[in-house]
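Regression check, FE2/S2 (inorganic) cluster case 144:
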Amino acid sequence: MGSHCAPLNLWQPYLFVWQTFTRFHLNHLVAVAKIRFLFEDKSIPEKTVVGDLEGRSILEITEEYDIHLSHNCGGVCACSTCHVYIEKGEEFLEEISEKEEDFIDRAINPRLESRLGCQCIILDNDADIVVTIPDQRRIIGHEH
Ligand code: FES
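Current build output:
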């Protein structure tokens, strides 16, 4: 039986090298965006989303990955309930508009890093973004 398995054993080191090489190159050829979500509400553990996220908004991603972010106007830049803080990676997002700035002024605790999740479109799949989600319990109508 030992001699029967010998040819396969001989190939195993080469197979391993080939698999490692392929995996390395696939990882570097197919760019994937990464968003790390942190929460003001410390009872919620942080969550990282990795994938083909280009062209999608932070709000859409929170919806898809079951992350609670209010959106009372339905994502049309007409409220401030989808307010988030972009801690890192602002350059990977569509620029802020005057209308968005106006609504951010009405959000709870606006800061320099404030954005509206529904207006944060991810520009490319090299994005590496860190977002803090404000405590949703403070938002009226937060049951979305
Ligand atoms: S959901 Fe209303 S402004 Fe984003």
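Comparison notes: The chain has a mean pLDDT of 88. The pocket of FE2/S2 (inorganic) cluster is lined by residues 71-73, 75, 77-79, 81-82, 103, 116, 118 (CB under 6 Å). No diff flagged against the previous build.
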